[in-house]
Amino acid sequence: MGEIDSDTKIHVVRAVAWKDAIIKLLEPSSPYRPWGEEFDAEPGDAVLVMLETEPTSVIAELVTVESRDGVEPAIARCMDTEKGGRPALLELETLAHLTGLEVYRDESGVIARGAAGLAEFIARRVPASGGLRYRQGHSTLAAARILLDSGGWCTGCRRELDLTAANARYHVHIHTVDADPAAPWTPVAYEPPEPVSDEYGPDSIRVTKWREPIRLPLDWPAALCDDCHDEMRMGGFTGFLDFRFSRHPRCPVCSARWTMRTMTSGFTDWRPREPWLRTTGCCSLGKWQCGACGHPFGGDDREDEPEDG
């Protein structure tokens, strides 16, 4: 983001077709042109992207126009945030209340006041939350967040979504979930596993030991390709979590269907946000680990990582 102060002019770029806009942000080569009316922007002006979701939302990233090539190159840089990760998608009214942002129309198009306050607020923010609450709800804002947060990858099979086609909007399916922050996460088993001592892998490196059955929410939001969407529907799955865990083998010890794909990591306290994945520190005892009893099993062949991970 370039230098932005109180005198910076902010052009508000509105996208009525929010799904087309998210696809264009994720895949710049998409043929979609969702940004509505054109306007003259000078180098040094800032661009704020507004989506006509319900409620209206904005990409929490201010970018500056660097040349006379227009605003599209600036919009594309919304995804190139120095903070890392993808930018958040925030409700416009909430953002206006917190920053003093005002949106109005003049002879050059839709303009926003409050550049300095908005830039300061955005600079303090972390990228989009990976938490479940951020993506809950059945509104189009929640659906847009789910698609943007997917990064262009199917949540079901972890294969890249084809966003380059003119009909891409019809082949990306959004699975939304109820918004209930107070809903408890339920354990997949109620009998605690047998007590285990610390386990050690090669070179006497301690492997994360199993402590208790995992807890799961009622459902999980997802962006799905055609194959996963059809497989989920034909299989009679009403929730994505049941479908996602059905892709994993059952535990050979307790027959539970809540097996997780293991991932090695140098930090044993790092936790993936997806409940069907589990980190095991530097060493892995198996490709899978049961979420109910903790039994690790399977080889460590990673060839099918896109399918299982």
Would you mind describing this structure in some detail?
This protein has helices at residues 18-26, 72-76, 92-99, 115-124, 140-150, 226-234, 240-246, 305-308; strands at 10-15, 46-51, 57-59, 63-64, 89-91, 102-106, 109-113, 173-175, 186-187, 199-200, 206-207, 215-216, 222-224, 259-263, 277-279, 288-290, 296-297. With 309 residues, the chain is α+β, with helices and mostly antiparallel strands. It has a domain at 10-128. Helix 1 runs parallel beside helix 5. The chain is elongated, with a radius of gyration of 22 Å. The two termini are 33 Å apart.
Question: What structural keywords apply?
Answer:
four-stranded mixed sheet; seven-stranded mixed sheet; 20% helix; 309 residues; alpha+beta
